[in-house]
Design a protein that fits this description.
By secondary structure, the protein is an alpha/beta fold. The chain is about 35% helix and about 25% strand. It has 13 helices and 16 strands. A hairpin with a 2-residue loop joins strand 7 and strand 8. Helix 5 crosses helix 6, helix 9 crosses helix 10 and helix 12 packs antiparallel against helix 13. The longest helix has 17 residues. The chain starts with a helix and ends in a 12-residue tail after the last strand. The structure holds S-adenosyl-L-homocysteine. S-adenosyl-L-homocysteine binds next to helix 4. The site of S-adenosyl-L-homocysteine (SAH) has 19 residues, from helix 4.
Length: about 350
């Protein structure tokens, strides 16, 4: 039993069941026992691996797509080059390396990282030691500038609430306590006006998920882009609309019961791109499958060039990384890329539906 499990059990015993969203927020960001607050979860020795940790090609292509979008908008200056949830800083390092030769881009672009975890902030400082970077706590603190932004596997970490359809009402899934253990329970059947539109595309017993945190990020970034211009690339696993229970825990690269080890496992839910799109007060392009998007940006040619410089096991690892990023059986299909943009053309790779 983790210390956080004990704290949550006592809290629930005293004040009643909590929502899945409250549970997720406590597990990920409790100041003393939260998953992200206390550790660096990334990489082979950690709990999960992300696209930028798999291959440098991912960050290179994200960087060049953002720089091309910047050129397409007449190379404005200054602009914010922002990343939400930068993990180890690998993606931003690859973006900056790949865009170093785009004339004027580094002079115009002020890198800003939005990171809530002190542990990962320290890690990002190490990775990006020689760069001039600003760290902020939340998207509301972004500078008032044209925005060129990427978020990879950030939105899936934001809390979701879950609702089970019961007639024309919904029962919220809650976390309670039974026999001294955390357990799922259902709240009373209640009308939720925010879910009225889901009565049309769900049936009795279906589960839907909502993330107020994710839609408010889309509203905030989209509002800035509508006002000041720019593009945001939102990359994550999910689909165009939410249906079913996608709340999951991963520890040491294996799935586990999300209530088993609060604070010690990564908790995520699929991103509902349709909800983000509705929340953004600006044009939206995509989502497009990650594999398709990377191929449109030229990953095959880049993979060949890099492969020609490598031998033996390094070459094998590189080819395997390329496969994982693009293949439909790996990350190529489940992961999607969606762009929020201004009145200029969508960013490269998202100009075709
Ligand atoms: N983008 C990185 C890391 C993904 S892990 C990569 O692709 O490798 C999720 C990241 O989002 C971590 O850096 C985590 O600390 C951060 N994060 C999660 N929720 C956050 C929140 N509400 N505010 C700020 N950062 C958050």
């Amino acid at each position: 039993m983790t210390e956080l499990a004990d704290l949550l059990r006592r809290q629930i015993a005293a004040t009643g069941p909590i929502t899945v969203g409250e549970y997720m927020a406590a597990c990920l960001f409790h100041p003393r026992h939260g998953y992200y607050t206390t550790r660096d979860p990334l990489g082979a020795a950690g709990d999960f691996t992300t696209a930028p940790e798999i291959s440098q090609m991912f960050g290179e292509l994200v960087g060049l797509a953002l720089a091309q979008a910047w050129l397409d908008r007449g190379a404005p200056a200054p602009v914010a080059l922002a990343e939400l949830g930068p993990g180890r800083g690998t993606l931003m390092a690859d973006i900056l390396r790949a865009t170093a030769r785009v004339p004027g881009f580094h002079d115009a672009a002020r890198p800003v990282l939005v990171e809530a975890s002190p542990t990962l902030r320290a890690r990002q400082h190490e990775t990006l030691a020689d760069r001039d970077i600003d760290w902020i706590d939340a998207v509301g603190d972004l500078p008032d500038l044209p925005l060129f932004l990427v978020a990879n596997e950030f939105l899936d970490a934001l809390p979701v609430r879950q609702f089970l359809r019961d007639g024309d009402a919904w029962r919220e899934r809650l976390v309670g306590v039974a026999d001294d253990h955390l357990t799922f329970a259902l709240g009373p059947a209640t009308a939720f006006p925010d879910l009225d539109h889901r009565l049309a595309d769900t049936g009795q017993g279906d589960m839907v998920e909502t993330s107020a945190a994710a839609t408010s990020v889309a509203a905030e970034i989209g509002g800035r882009i509508a006002r000041r211009g720019g593009v945001a690339l939102l990359i994550d696993y999910g689909s165009d609309g939410s249906l079913g229970d996608t709340f999951q825990a991963v520890r040491r690269h294996e799935k586990e019961d999300p209530l088993a080890t609060p604070g010690a496992a990564d908790l995520t839910a699929h991103v509902d791109f349709a909800a983000l799109s509705r929340a953004a007060p600006c044009p939206v392009a995509g989502p497009v499958a990650q594999g398709v998007w990377l191929e449109r940006l030229g990953i095959v040619a880049r993979a060949r060039t890099l492969a020609d410089r490598l031998e033996g096991s390094a070459r094998g690892a590189h080819v395997e990384g390329f496969r994982r990023l693009t293949h439909p059986d790996a990350m190529g299909h489940l992961f999607k890329v969606m762009a929020l943009h201004d009145d200029a053309a969508p960013p490269p790779g998202l100009d075709i539906p």
